[in-house]
Amino acid sequence: MEAENRHTLGKAERLRGKKAFGELVASGKGFTAYPLRVVWLLVPCDGEPVRMAVSVSKRRFKRAVKRNRVKRLVREVYRLHKHPIRALVPPGRALHLLFVYIHDELPDYPMIEKAIAHVTRKLAQSLALPGGVDAPAAD
Fold first, then answer.
1. What pLDDT digit, counting tens, does each position of 22-35 carry?
2. Three-class secondary structure of residue 74 per DSSP
3. What pLDDT sits at residue 2?
């Protein structure tokens, strides 16, 4: 199996670091694919074409076990459905994604799967628009 078509979610594909998060939250664009709020930003390529993170509010789920379950479920569905999102990213660019869970109850797999499919469609529309993709990075 080719490395590009493997259904893995390695450390390099996770969005980490205060600078990356700060930039994404400050200047990222967003939309809602209930029960997820998605914040995305195109940046110059930094290795992986797509890097993602998941956030679940402590206010919505007091117990860490429940928060971790939601994050694990979102990561799993993303891992299995990431290839169409990766195909949308223009060459020389990278897409940073933040999934924020906004529902008050624990989700089930079909709910999150439907939301990730909606995210893929919305990103395809946004990245296809002339204003959706910023000017190419200067090489």
1. 999 999 999 999 99
2. helix
3. 45
pLDDT by residue (tens digit) across 118-135? Answer: 999 999 999 886 555 444
Three-state secondary-structure class, residue 85: helix
Sign of torsion over alpha carbons 53, 50, 75, 32: positive
Which residues touch 11 (CB under 8 Å, ≥6 apart)? none
Average pLDDT, the chain: 89
- Check residue 134 and report its DSSP letter: P
Helical ranges in 42-101 per DSSP H: 64-80, 83-88
Sign of CA dihedral 46, 10, 71, 59: negative
**Cα dihedral sign for 55, 57, 60, 65?**
positive
Q: Which domains does the chain have, with CATH numbers?
A: 32-128 (3.30.230.10)
Contact, 13 vs 50, CB < 8 A? yes
- How far is the C-alpha of 78 from the C-alpha of 57, rounded, in Å? 19
